[in-house]
Amino acid sequence: MEHVKYLILGAGPAGLTFARRLLDKGENSFLVLEKEDCAGGLCRSVNVDGAPFDIGGGHFLDVRRPKVNEFLFRFMPEEEWILFERDSRIWVNGLTINHPFESNIWQMDMDSQVDYLISIAKAGCNNEEPMPEKFVDWIKWKLGDKVAQDYMIPYNQKMFADELNLLGTYWLEKLPNVSFEETLRSCLAHKPYGTQPGHASFYYPKKYGYGEVWLRMADSMAEHMVYNQTVSELDFDKKIVSTKSGQKWEADVIVTTIPWTCFDILNGMPEDMRNSIYEQLKHSAIETRYVPEQLDTPAQWIYVPDANTPYHRILVRHNFCQNSKGYWLETRQERTGSYDGDENYHYLNEYAYPLNTIGKPELVHKILSFAKERNVYGLGRWGEHSHYNSDLVVELAMNMAEELVGE
User: Fold this and answer.
1) Domain boundaries, given as residue ranges, for the chain
2) Residue-wise pLDDT tens digits, 240-291
3) Beta 231-235 vs 240-243: how paired, if at all?
4) Which fold has domain 2-87+204-405?
5) Quick check: 340 and 218 in contact, CB under 8 A?
6) Distance CA 308, CA 305 (A)
7) Edge-to-edge strands of the sheet including 81-85?
8) How would you class 262 by CB atoms within 10 Å of its CB: exposed for 0-12, middle for 13-18, buried for 19 or more?
9) pTM of the model
């Protein structure tokens, strides 16, 4: 049984970044275990119809974290990327408006603008009403009944879960209040007011898919990468990881970036905590599907809240990926039956989004605290069971390397 100082589970952005920072700091006793035959995780790319297709959907490099970009540009220089200003739209009630919804109601007809303005004016958060505890009530309180019913409720049902009240509201608190005054100003001035969304500017590779940067990072430490190994067992006391092929590795420190529910056996963890992982940590599975037709739109993202349409988001490939055509659909697994007989390329991501269910923060805190006491660390979207974008994941991994190894 091989012994290393650091054993990293998963070769997505979190695991790769942590591993590469170890190497940067002169640490050579580490391995990265990956179940696939290549690196990248949810950010992997394949070639479809002569151009890149990102199997995880809409993963791009945000510009808001300069240190992250500087780090990634080491492996894929900045001149190999294109900087875009985000153009995202929403298809709602037969209309197309810009995102975010509340800032662009002015693009609708006058009657619709009036209806939305009245609804926003009555929103509980604008009238000092107490904040509700249930997800659906909270959305109405925050946005007004009409924005909630026409957009946010059906969109979240399509993306996450049919029963939204299984979700908590703690993760929605970052949403700004929909201000009646700002919405009214936008309608009068015919321009958006208020807080603009993240990813207002983003990088995408000129010649490759987003997965290319992660392949290059993995190649820079190829001797530390072990592919085609599906982790099945973690022993907290002995710090031994076993895979389904029967191989075992022992480590001083284990960093896991894979879903906690992927472990068949968690030795040394209290039974009630193990049971809580399998019973309470929920996730959604998302299919990405290629459609070869062109869409007549300048948008890169299109959000589709219509309940009668299976997919919830369109990524218009030819508007960000050079020399390509067509677009990608994102659809929650439970809604993919509508595609029966469709032969277009598609890929199912079993683990796409961690669900922010009621009680999840408390449970994850218990898991991570227990693990950390035993030199096992959860990191990234799945190690922390949080809906993190790739740029944030890289930052968290860089910070963990500083914490565990130092300057």
Assistant:
1) 2-87+204-405, 100-189
2) 999 999 999 999 999 999 999 999 999 999 999 999 999 999 999 999 999 9
3) antiparallel
4) FAD/NAD(P)-binding domain (3.50.50)
5) no
6) 9
7) 61-62, 201-205, 81-85
8) middle
9) 0.95
